[in-house]
């Protein structure tokens, strides 16, 4: 098993930490220790430490979910002393493997919420970060406010000393730190959201305002919420993939991670209690991340989920196979060139056409073996983030809606759970009820437009867009995806 005992005797070609993980003091608590976090934020902090930039920047991971799977994950992290391997794969198939040592502890919140609060109240903790998904911030899309009517939020507000949500943990810890004179920490969102720092501020201050208005005012004045743009394709690792990664590395790692070679992190430099020297690891610090955010979300992410929906309908399983389909390749390029690039303002020095080519190359990376079902997961939340600005701009400018409507129609058809070949799959929509998902099977093709996926532009939705989506759904159903693709 991978653990600290074998760090001095790793297999040939596997790089280990260039510092002693046992001496690393935690300074960061992270909620949501998934594959993306382990291949992105943790990887950047690891690179900082490897470059001789010392500091109390070990990471304590926190899991928020209960159940046997979560318990096994926590037990495995502890058995492996927080260590795991990351395999990076370039588009040409070149691989490199390293053991990441920056994760110094892992706490399962439902098992011991007081241990989580104690760690958050430790004066050494300077940053609390999170990857809780695009839909995890509990924001009402119509009002833009934090929803206090969520049952889990209501339970935390009724018993704030024993929270269960990330909002309850963070705000209660800030209350205790304020009372003890410890001071605040930075709250850093690493999710694919427009203005993710502002969204996080709205969520945590909104919860605090319902809990204690004075505390909310103190948080607004003292806690920073930096915005960031994060990017790295990190697929799921199933049992077969885990075995393959271990065979190639020579390790016995129960929690390996696979990622593409490309990685990007653009970050607002707004940290109230200090930060690692992330610039030495390749993080780009800017005063405003909006332009980078727009390019990434509207080009890479929107193209990704659109390709995912179309690919699933055609019976593909993997991203690289879908982009290798000449018809889908042509459609995605047309969407990027005609619908997005003509209606976006890129940051100075960023070449949009070069970015487009890079996106297609990244999708084509066969070694990553990213699944279309993963890409489409939580599409109701992703659509609001990835599609909204392009849809709104197109409606306001009178831009051609054909490709946009077709992509939205493909998402709704994908929700039906079957390909044109008759193969079935289960769409992963954690924020939708069964009844909502069932709207995609309603004989009225317009019925599914009531789904929250369309909330981001509902106030400017036109009959023309509705009609175009309905017509595209009908064409897909009657003639198939390939015959219906617009130019």
UniProtKB/TrEMBL annotation:
Q: Which residues form the Mannitol dehydrogenase C-terminal domain?
A: 288-474
Tell me if Repeat is a UniProt keyword of this record. no
Q: Which PROSITE patterns match?
A: MANNITOL_DHGENASE
Which domain of life does the UniProt lineage start with? Bacteria
Per the UniProt record, one Pfam family is Mannitol_dh_C
Q: Where exactly are the transmembrane stretches of this chain?
A: none
Please report the name of this protein according to its UniProt entry.
Mannitol dehydrogenase family protein
Mannitol dehydrogenase N-terminal domain segment(s): 27-279
Give the keywords, sorted. NAD, Oxidoreductase
Query: Does the keyword section mention NAD?
Result: yes
* InterPro entries recorded: 6-PGluconate_DH-like_C_sf, 6PGD_dom2, Mannitol_DH, Mannitol_DH/Oxidoreductase, Mannitol_DH_C, Mannitol_DH_CS, Mannitol_DH_N, NAD(P)-bd_dom_sf
């Amino acid at each position: 098993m991978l653990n600290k005992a074998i760090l001095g005797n790793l297999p040939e070609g596997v790089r280990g930490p260039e510092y002693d993980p046992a001496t690393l003091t935690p300074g960061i608590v992270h909620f949501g220790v998934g594959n993306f976090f382990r291949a992105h934020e943790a990887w950047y902090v690891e690179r900082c430490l490897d470059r001789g930039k010392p500091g109390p920047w070990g990471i304590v991971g926190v899991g928020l979910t209960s159940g046997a799977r979560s318990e096994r994950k926590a037990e495995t992290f502890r058995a492996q002393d927080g260590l795991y391997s990351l395999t990076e794969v370039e588009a040409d198939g070149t691989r490199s493997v390293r053991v990441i040592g920056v994760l110094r502890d892992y706490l399962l919140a439902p098992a011991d919420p007081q241990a989580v609060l104690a760690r958050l109240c430790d004066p050494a903790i300077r940053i609390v970060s999170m990857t809780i998904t695009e839909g995890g911030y509990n924001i009402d899309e119509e009002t833009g406010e934090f929803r206090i009517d969520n049952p889990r939020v209501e339970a935390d507000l009724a018993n704030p000393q024993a929270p269960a949500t990330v909002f309850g943990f963070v705000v209660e810890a800030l209350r205790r730190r304020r009372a003890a004179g410890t001071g605040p920490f930075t709250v850093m969102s690493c999710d694919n959201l427009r203005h993710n720092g502002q969204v996080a501020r709205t969520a945590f201050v909104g919860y605090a305002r319902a809990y204690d208005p004075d505390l909310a005012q103190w948080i607004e004045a003292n806690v920073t919420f930096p915005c960031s743009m994060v990017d790295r394709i990190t697929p799921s690792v199933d049992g077969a993939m885990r075995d393959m990664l271990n065979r190639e590395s020579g390790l016995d790692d129960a929690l390996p991670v696979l990622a593409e070679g490309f990685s990007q992190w653009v970050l607002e430099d707004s940290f109230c209690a200090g930060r690692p020297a992330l610039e030495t690891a390749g993080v780009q610090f800017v005063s405003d991340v909006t332009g980078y955010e727009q390019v990434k979300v509207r080009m890479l992410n929107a193209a990704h989920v659109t390709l995912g929906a179309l690919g699933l309908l055609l019976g593909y399983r993997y991203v690289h196979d879908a982009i290798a389909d000449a018809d889908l390749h042509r459609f995605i390029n047309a969407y990027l060139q005609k619908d997005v690039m003509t209606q976006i303002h890129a940051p100075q020095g960023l070449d949009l056409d070069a970015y487009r080519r890079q996106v297609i190359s990244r999708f084509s990376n066969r070694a990553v073996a990213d699944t279309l079902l993963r890409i489409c997961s939580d599409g109701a939340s992703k659509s609001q983030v990835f599609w909204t600005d392009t849809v709104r701009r197109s409606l306001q400018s009178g831009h051609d809606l054909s490709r946009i409507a077709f992509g939205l129609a493909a998402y709704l058809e994908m929700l039906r759970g079957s390909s044109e070949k008759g193969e079935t799959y289960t769409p992963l929509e954690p924020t939708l009820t069964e009844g909502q998902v069932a709207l995609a099977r309603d004989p009225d093709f317009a019925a599914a437009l009531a789904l929250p996926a369309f909330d981001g532009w509902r106030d400017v939705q036109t009959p023309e867009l509705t009609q175009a989506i309905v017509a595209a759904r009908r064409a897909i159903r009657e003639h198939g995806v390939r015959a219906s693709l617009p130019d």
